[in-house]
Amino acid sequence: MEITWGPLFVGGLLAGWGVAVPLGAIGLLVMREALAGGFRAGAAAALAVAMVDGLYCAAAVLLGRAAAPVIVSWGAAPALCAGLVLVALGVHGLMRRTAQAVVSDRVRRPPASGRVFATFAGLTLVNPATLLYFAALTAALPPSLGLEAAPLVFVAGAVAASLSWQLVLVALGTVGGGRIGVRGQTILSACGYGLVVALGAAAVIAALAALV
Fold it and tell me: Comparing C-alpha atoms, which of 168, 180, 131 is closest to residue 23?
């Protein structure tokens, strides 16, 4: 069967945008990172998010229909662990931003790109819902699309879509950096990390409820 890469790449684009475009905690934090640290810091955050989305997409494509059932068979444990990690990361972020606000009158040095990348990679990795999304989506794709013959084309489309959207958020944050003061940055940071804590708490509560 002859495989046309165009539709497969477009399918990956649509899948990646489906994950990335809904603005949540990660999107807010990417914007805040660009707003506070400039385009370089924001781009590092955007690249981390897109790379993890790509890893989850690749895992779903390679594991195929087996990915979602395996995770589901683990019961509430993945959601409970992910929720606890999200709460810890969110609280740490809130405390760190509060400490920075106390010394906001000092000149802030741009954050190291490696540290930003690691932080956002960790935040994105602890969201197994992304893997489930890609697993369900790839299982529903028609065989005529040729996913099994050229899976990397689909994954490349998903990564490109995620990165393009994250860079849009970075651009918005960079433009707003000169217009939003320290107070605005603190509020945006609190909203982002607060949402991370809320999502983590919700995951923990749901996981504990499932165990009862």
Answer: 168
Map 191-203 to HEC letters: HHHHHHHHHHHHH
What are 28-43's pLDDT values in tens digits?
Answer: 888 888 888 889 999 9
Q: Are 196 and 57 in contact (CB under 8 A)?
A: no
The token duo for 134 is 């890609």
Say how many C-beta atoms besides its own lie within 10 A of residue 63's C-beta: 17
- Specify whether the CB–CB gap between 9 and 146 falls below 8 A: no
Which of the 8 DSSP states describes residue 141?
Answer: S
Whole-prediction pTM: 0.69
Cα 24 from Cα 196, distance rounded (Å): 9
CA distance 179 to 182: 10
Cα gap 156→51, rounded to integer Å: 10
CA distance between the termini of the chain: 50
Taking only the tens place, the pLDDT of each residue in 86-118 is: 788 778 777 765 555 544 444 456 678 888 999
Selection from 15, 132, 147, 137 nearest residue 67 by Cα? 132
